[in-house]
Amino acid sequence: MEFTIKSGNPEKQRTACVVVGVFDNRKLSLAAERIDRAAKGYISDIIRRGDMEGRLGTTLLLYNVPNTLADRVLLVGLGRERDFKEREYYTAVRNAVKFLNETGAYEAVIYLTEEKVRRRDIGWRIEHTVIAASDATYRFDHMKTENVDVRRPLRKLTLSVPMRSDLLIGETMLARGVAVSEGIELTRDLGNLPANMCTPAYLADMARKLASMYSTEVKAQVLEQSEIEENKMGAFLSVAQGSETPPRFIVIEYKRAGVKKKPVVLIGKGITFDSGGISLKPGADMDQMKFDMSGAASIFGVFRTVAELKPNIHLIGLIPACENMPSGRATKPGDVVTSMSGQTIEVLNTDAEGRLLLADALTYAERYDPEAVVDVATLTGAMVITLGNVACGVFGNNETLVRALVTAGDDAADRAWALPLWDEYHDALKSNFADVANVGGRSAGSITAACFLSRFAKKYNWAHLDIAGVAWKEGKEKGATGRPVPLLVNWLLARENRDE
Ligand code: BES
Ligand code: MN
Ligand code: ZN
Fold first, then answer.
1. Which ligand is in closest contact with the Cα of 467?
2. pLDDT reading at 150 higher than 60
3. How far, in Å, are 127, 306, 314, 416, 464 from residue 405 at the CA level?
4. Sign (positive/negative) of CA torsion 195, 197, 200, 202?
């Protein structure tokens, strides 16, 4: 979709559709009020009759509103005025655009951008209008040969700003919203792609593709089986060995010329399919384990956005990618493997595979002398039980880093919530046969998984995002969400400004 920005009165817009908000209790937004005044009470009449109550996300489409130049006016419910915050803003825009996409209008001018959101300025509203609108029109149907809806979709959205002096910041944040949306879209596409197509080799090609698209700033390097062996990544290889599909260890680097800073390293879990291995998962919903490379997908998304925006930062992405499959060659429960760090691991459950590959990637990260390392993984089902699909869990060995990630998530309406890594939790990982076991008990499963990782992340500031609950949706809307790309981009850009 194409986005533009302008400043002007709603009743004077020559457009297929003007989008304005209505709060509950019959309170019109400023833009709705202006149209109402021009139309001599036409809108307030409709509201008085009860056809639009202003409940959040509801819509009512009006044609030929008197004394306006637009073909249509779309009223969007904003809910209670004092509850109108980041998430409500996002929902209102998303629903409005979803609705527009179903009408014949191929372009529209949206005035929700002029509504005040507590603590958020016009720049924030512009950026998030673009992200929410792109979210609403995202589709993944190129593998369908039938029943593809061919109606005219919304092609162009114009965002209104209250004053001409807002246009400058508006343009900047519009570009940022577009870049973040492109990153989210890449992450969703990779997540949604099935495991027979999205293989470790496919992910490696994606890294090479980004490197050729943005050759000045982005470089890619791919380690194959033999090089992974040379690096002694015994934990990673123990997961990969059950599959016929060979693993890849992908390194991607973004560096703006002249930047001398120590790098930030992002690590993404790249299990392209998680059957559980010999500790086989139950059959129901096993298809969803194609999303087990969502952490890796989010790293690619971040690189896409960053390569578009070109901030002055130095970023490394590490992606251990493989399948977790049962076979005659697969790792068995009880096997002991030696990680790249030298620590031995008793693999009590082959379905706790993510932490094994992350362990070796965390050790590999040491060579960059990083400023900070953040790993992103669909690591534990327990995370879905803990925080549901509302927030991801964040863990770490540095409180400032953890807090910065939580704040970045709040700002991006892509929330994260900090959980503890106290010493007591480490006891669960004791093994009689190796330095550490790869599973604790059933209790505090997300925390003990993070404790396991922390043993491999002692040499730098480290945080871990467990995105098992937020990376994809189940049910009718099954599909990848693109989270936590907004959080990570926000964090990186906020760091850039802080460092300067
Ligand atoms: N990829 C899964 C975690 C997962 C499960 C994410 C369901 C989203 C939904 C991970 O590899 C896994 O299987 N974890 C096990 C760990 C357990 C064996 C300690 C789990 O959570 O059941
Ligand atoms: Mn697993
Ligand atoms: Zn997994």
1. 1
2. no
3. 19, 17, 18, 7, 10
4. negative
Q: How crowded is the C-beta side of 250, counted as CA atoms within 13 Å? A: 35
Q: Which of 40, 45, 36, 26 is nearest to 73 (CA)?
A: 36
**What is the token pair recorded at 254?**
């973004």
Residue whose Cα lies nearest atom 13 of ligand 1: it is 351
Distance CA 347, CA 280 (A): 14
- Active-site residue (options: 304, 355, 483, 495): 355
pLDDT above 60: residue 81: yes
Backbone angles phi, psi at 464, to 5 degrees: -130, 125
Q: How many angstroms is it from 137 CA to the middle of ligand 3?
A: 29
**Distance between Cα 474 and ligand 2 center (Å):** 18
Distance CA 256, CA 357 (A): 29
Neighbours of 16 (CB within 10 A): 18
Q: Which residues line ligand 1 (CB under 6 A)?
A: 274, 292, 349, 351-354, 378-382, 384, 439, 445, 468
How confident is the model at residue 104, as a pLDDT? 84
The residue contributing the CA closest to ligand 1 atom 22 is 381
355 carries an active-site annotation: yes
Indicate the angle between helix axes 122-137 and 86-102, nearest 10 degrees: 40
CB 484 within 8 A of CB 393: no
Annotated catalytic residue within 27, 37, 281, 459: 281
On the question of pLDDT at 398 being above 90, the answer is yes
